[in-house]
């Protein structure tokens, strides 16, 4: 069958004039060139698609790596904080604040406990401390002592008002919290 087609093709070419043969060769060359061009375009398009997919996946991997680094840092910070909470001795806020205030010769007018709050494994206990007449310097020293202590005590809110009767003292209300693990 292939032999028959070949014989027919050779017979048809032998019947062509020189000019027709040249046109047939040019047309065949153009056809081969066109087929080669189409094949080359398809191959280069396929390569470009694969390269773009590889680039997208590489970018995704880089994002995952960056996020995992941030996750590790946050997990380590959480682990350190939990260890600090577990290792911290239970702090009685009333006695802690009284001792800190007495050490700085500050008179506390009123201390009111707040109800404990539980957030997951962490228990927060709070107290509201009111001082009617305290010098700003002593108040700053008390705040620094509380914030700088190794105990897990945090000043949640501080409200300071100038006293109308005295320019040397202020009224202050501090909301303090201590934290511990269940």
Write the SSE topology:
Blueprint: H1 2-14, H2 18-87, H3 93-103, E1 110-119, E2 122-134, H4 136-148, E3 153-162, E4 170-181
Antiparallel strand pairs: 1-2, 2-4, 3-4
Task: Explain what this protein looks like in three dimensions.
With 182 residues, this protein is α+β, with helices and mostly antiparallel strands. It folds into two domains: 87 residues; 89 residues, Ribosomal protein S6/Translation elongation factor EF1B (Alpha-Beta Plaits). The protein is built from four helices and four strands, in the order αααββαββ. A four-stranded antiparallel beta sheet has the order 1-2-4-3. A hairpin with a 7-residue loop joins β3 and β4. The longest helix is centred in the first third of the chain and has 70 residues. The protein is rod-shaped and about 125 Å long. The termini are far apart. 9% of the residues are buried. The mean pLDDT is 85.
Please outline what is shown here.
This protein is an alpha+beta fold. It has helices at residues 2-14, 18-87, 93-103, 136-148; strands at residues 110-119, 122-134, 153-162, 170-181.
- Profile the largest sheet: 4 strands, antiparallel
The best one-word shape is: rod-shaped
Which regions have little confidence, pLDDT < 50, spanning 5+ residues? none
Query: Helical residue percent?
Result: 55-70%
> CATH homologous superfamily of the largest domain - what is it?
Ribosomal protein S6/Translation elongation factor EF1B
Total tally of structural domains: 2
Strand content: 15-25%
Following the backbone from N to C, one meets helices and strands in this order, namely HHHEEHEE
Rg calc: 42 Å
Stated plainly, the CATH topology of the largest domain is called Alpha-Beta Plaits
């Amino acid at each position: 069958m292939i032999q028959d087609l070949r014989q027919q093709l050779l017979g048809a070419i032998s019947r062509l004039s020189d000019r027709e043969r040249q046109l047939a060769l040019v047309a065949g060359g153009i056809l081969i060139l066109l087929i080669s061009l189409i094949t080359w375009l398809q191959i280069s398009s396929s390569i470009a698609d694969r390269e773009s997919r590889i680039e997208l996946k590489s970018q995704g991997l880089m994002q995952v790596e960056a996020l995992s680094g941030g996750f590790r840092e946050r997990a380590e910070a959480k682990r350190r904080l939990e260890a600090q909470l577990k290792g911290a001795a239970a702090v009685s806020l009333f006695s802690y604040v009284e001792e800190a205030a007495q050490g700085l010769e500050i008179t506390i007018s009123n201390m009111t406990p707040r109800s404990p709050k539980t957030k997951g494994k962490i228990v927060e206990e709070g107290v509201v401390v009111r001082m009617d007449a305290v010098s700003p310097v002593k108040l700053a020293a008390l705040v620094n002592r509380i914030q700088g202590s190794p105990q897990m005590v945090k000043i949640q809110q501080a409200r300071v008002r100038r006293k109308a009767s005295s320019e040397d003292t202020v009224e202050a209300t501090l909301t303090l919290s201590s934290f511990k693990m269940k």
